[in-house]
Design brief:
Elements: E1 36-39, E2 42-45, H1 70-94, H2 99-119, H3 121-167
Antiparallel strand pairs: 1-2
Length: about 170
């Protein structure tokens, strides 16, 4: 009995048999997924919503102000994290049985840091796209200038060739 190394391909390829003659014969792509979906056993949603720290059961260590100075708050949390790590080292040396409280505090600080950073992700994405688009515009302007320069050079060469041929 012969067995194949790989299973046969799914029958979807038959939907594209006339594609070379008629590209419109291919089936339409499926509609975009809306709401929640399951992928590799995990539930995901298509909505980009950053859950609040309270929803995650973590105390918020920075103000809930809408005019939050992210830079100062990140610095403050970073200093607090460094202090708590040093305190953890002291606790591990002096009172090893009390390390769990310090670990919980450090975990809370890390979660607050991550939440602040994740709240800046949309701004980062916009800034990155703006930068990429500006680079593309600059590259295209350089390409246009290069084409213009080469066109002028070609026109000059043609003019010189014409004058050379005309002078004979």
């Amino acid at each position: 009995m012969a067995t194949a190394t790989y299973p046969p391909p799914p029958p979807y390829y038959r939907l594209y048999k006339d594609y070379s003659e008629n590209p419109n014969s291919a089936p339409e792509p499926p509609p975009p997924i809306e709401g929640t979906y399951v992928c590799f056993g995990g539930n995901y949603t298509t909505e980009d919503v950053l859950p609040s720290l309270e929803e995650q059961g973590v105390p918020q260590l920075y103000p809930k102000d809408s005019n939050l100075d992210y830079k100062n708050e990140l610095r403050s949390l970073n200093r607090e994290l460094q202090l708590h790590i040093l305190e953890l080292a002291d606790v591990l040396v002096d009172r090893p049985s009390q390390y769990a409280k310090r670990i919980g505090e450090i975990s809370s600080i890390f979660k607050n840091l991550h939440h602040l950073l994740n709240s800046l992700r949309p701004h980062q994405a916009r800034a990155t796209l703006i930068h990429i688009m500006e680079l593309q515009i600059q590259q295209r302007k350089q390409a246009v200038e290069d084409i213009k320069r080469r066109r002028e050079e070609a026109q000059r060469l043609l003019k010189d060739a014409y004058l050379t041929l005309d002078g004979q």
